[in-house]
Structure formats: structure tokens, C-alpha cells
Design brief:
Largest sheet: 11 strands, mixed
Number of strands: 17
Transmembrane segments: 105-124
Domain FecR N-terminal: 18-58
GO molecular function, one term: sigma factor antagonist activity
Strand content: 25-35%
Number of domains: 3
Distance between the termini: 28 Å
CATH architecture of the largest domain: Sandwich
Pfam families: DUF4880, FecR
InterPro entries: FecR, FecR_N, Ferrdict_sens_TM
């Protein structure tokens, strides 16, 4: 095969898409122009190249302001410069291993070198028909709810509260005569709480407790961080002592509608901000929205929705931040995007295992 004339097979498409993403960065930076000979020669060498360039432009446009953030451009430019053969020589020789860079229009990824926090999660339930007991705090009944990879579930509790479990989520419902207690062990859940002033609705995630009354809220747990997002009503978040002693370690934090509290492993007070409601509810609409998440956090989230397991092999890669919108379970789009916009490659270890490693 004449390397200057790529054929329309999968490897050629991957190579063309990688080159197109690099051309797009250089065009934006002013390093080349649309009428430059090298760019025109590459573009006209094959219909595969032209199609790849159309795709790169579409992806760039879909990324909006993320595409032109200075820190993102720097990471992309550095990744290109490290492999600088240049891209013109690389497409002519076509000897290097082709990179998977087929980013789908619905999955745009932006990358920043930095760190962020992880998240934890809890669940609940009660039974108003249970028999009274001598100790009102005694557990009358308990039940465990669990979802697998790529599985979500909606549970209507006997008090008419509804709990939506995200994929790879586990929670325990314990109810007593005086309270509805939920413990989130892993994952993420959305709670639509039925009003019952006589029996508080409490969700525990790690060392944090959420007390809700007539409320809609989301609790998530990624790594060792708890994130509570209030959609409607009110909640109060309290912490517990790490040595399991009774009593809060810090004053309770009250959330208003539209607010979010992120509590790190160290506990309250945490960080309270106005919530990105689209991101908080994305998982219930079959999407994953990343907004400055580390690669490690992004991998953990994507692994919830696919039986193809992603892992990070090289030290330091966990620190890169990423932003973008992906369909839950679309592992290929995520991998392609990471390779296109980070100095990272992926190798497929098996039909169900993909590993990220440093390109250099």
C-alpha cells in the first residue's frame, strides 16, 4: 500500500482521525493555514483524510469553550510536540502504531492537568405496616438493593418514597418504628422522599448522614468523597467521628434547592456550591458528564456502565482532568477521546480489558 494513499480500512481511519485532530489544533493555533501546501496535500491525499477532518471540525465545534481553553490547548500542543515527527512526516511514512481517535459527535473531551476529589453514596427504605416493637429504635426489617454493571433500577418503597439506583450501586434499607434509615455502600442514588414528619428519612454515606423531609436529592460516592445535590425541598448533612463515637465532628450543613455539598474523606464542613443540575442528573438520562474530573475518576465512572474494564497502568496519568459528554456504556468513544486529546495510549489486553499508559 502506498502510505500517501490510505485505504478505507479501520487502521487507516484511526490514523487519519488522529492526524486530523492534530491538524485541527495547529489550525486553531495559527501554526498552519487552510491553504498551506502541507495541509492541503494531506487533506486531498485520500477521502478518508477529508472525512476525518470533517469529523475533527465537528467535534471541535461541539466542545464549545472547552476546545479553546488555554490550559487544554497547551496539553494538546505538548502532546503533539512530543511526538513531533512532524504530523506531516508521520502521515507520509505511516509507520507508527495507529491511534484510536474516532470521537463521536456526542462525546467531546477536554483535558487539563490537575486533581479533583472522588465521591461516595447511600440508600434507604421503611415499612409503615411493620409491627410495633418495645424499642422504637430497633430495626424492624432490612433489605439490600444492588445493581450490576450497566444496570439501573427504580425502587418504590412501602412509604411511597422512590429510589433510583445508578449502575454498580449497593444500599441497605433499615426501618424502625421511628425512622427510615438508608446506608449507601457504593455507587449513586436519587431519592424522591415521601413526606412523613413522624419518621425522618436519613441516608448515610460513609461518615456523612443526610436528613431529608419531603425532598428530592442525589447522593453519590466516587472514591472516598460524598456528594449531595439537592433538587427540591431541604436536607441537612451531618458528619460522624471517624472513631465511631457518637456526635457530629462539625456543625451540620443545610442545603437549599439547587445547591451541592462535596465532602472529602476528612469530613465536614466540605465545599458547598451551586449545583450543575444537568451533570447531577445526567446518569438518569443515560449520559456521563465530566467537568474537570480526573482521569481516574472518569475511568471509575465509565466502568459503571460497561463490561469492558478500563484501568490506568502508568503513574501520573490519574492527575489529568477531563471534561466532556458521553453516552453511558460507550467505552470506545471515551477511549478514542482520551487518546486524541491526552498524551495517553490505550492497549486492549483482552475483549473485556483496556489499559491506559503514557505515550512517552
Amino acid at each position: 500500500m502506498n502510505p500517501a494513499q490510505p485505504t478505507n480500512n479501520a487502521d487507516d481511519r484511526r490514523t487519519a482521525r488522529k492526524q486530523a485532530s492534530e491538524w485541527q489544533v495547529r489550525l486553531h493555533n495559527g501554526e498552519v493555514r487552510e491553504d498551506d501546501d502541507a495541509f492541503r496535500e494531506w487533506l486531498e491525499a485520500s477521502p478518508v483524510n477529508a472525512a476525518a477532518m470533517d469529523r475533527a471540525r465537528s467535534i471541535w465545534a461541539s466542545m464549545g469553550e472547552n476546545a479553546v481553553a488555554p490550559e487544554i490547548l497547551k496539553v494538546r500542543r505538548d502532546a503533539i510536540d512530543r511526538s513531533r515527527g512532524t504530523i506531516t512526516r508521520r502521515w507520509l511514512t505511516a509507520q507508527s502504531r495507529p491511534f484510536k481517535v474516532a470521537m463521536r459527535a456526542a462525546a467531546a473531551l477536554a483535558v487539563v492537568a490537575a486533581i479533583s476529589l472522588p465521591v461516595l453514596f447511600v440508600g434507604l427504605r421503611s415499612d409503615p405496616n411493620s409491627q410495633p416493637v418495645s424499642d422504637p429504635g430497633a430495626v424492624v426489617a432490612s433489605e439490600t438493593y444492588k445493581t450490576g454493571i450497566a444496570e439501573t433500577r427504580i425502587v418504590t418503597l412501602t412509604d411511597n418514597s422512590r429510589v433510583t439506583l445508578d449502575a454498580a450501586t449497593q444500599l441497605i434499607v433499615r426501618y424502625t418504628a421511628e425512622a427510615r434509615e438508608i446506608e449507601l455502600l457504593a455507587g449513586q442514588a436519587f431519592f424522591d422522599v415521601a413526606k412523613d414528619k413522624s419518621r425522618p428519612f436519613r441516608v448515610r454515606a460513609g461518615a456523612q448522614r443526610v436528613l431529608a423531609t419531603g425532598t428530592e436529592f442525589n447522593v453519590s460516592m466516587i472514591g472516598r468523597e460524598v456528594r449531595v445535590t439537592l433538587v427540591e425541598g431541604e436536607v441537612v448533612v451531618t458528619g460522624e467521628r471517624p472513631d465511631a463515637e457518637d456526635g457530629p465532628v462539625a456543625p451540620p450543613v443545610k442545603l437549599r434547592q439547587g445547591e451541592q455539598l462535596v465532602v472529602p474523606d476528612a469530613g465536614l464542613p466540605g465545599i458547598k456550591t451551586n449545583a450543575d443540575m444537568e451533570k447531577a442528573s445526567a446518569w438518569r438520562n443515560g449520559k456521563v458528564i465530566l467537568d474537570g474530573d480526573t482521569l481516574a475518576e472518569a475511568v471509575e465512572q465509565m466502568n459503571r456502565y460497561s463490561r469492558i474494564r478500563l484501568s490506568i497502568a502508568s503513574d501520573g496519568l490519574e492527575q489529568y482532568r477531563i471534561s466532556g459528554v458521553f453516552h453511558a456504556g460507550d467505552t470506545d468513544a471515551f477511549v478514542d477521546a482520551v487518546e486524541a486529546y491526552l498524551p495517553v495510549d490505550a492497549r486492549r489486553l483482552s475483549a473485556t480489558q483496556i489499559e491506559f499508559y503514557s505515550r512517552h
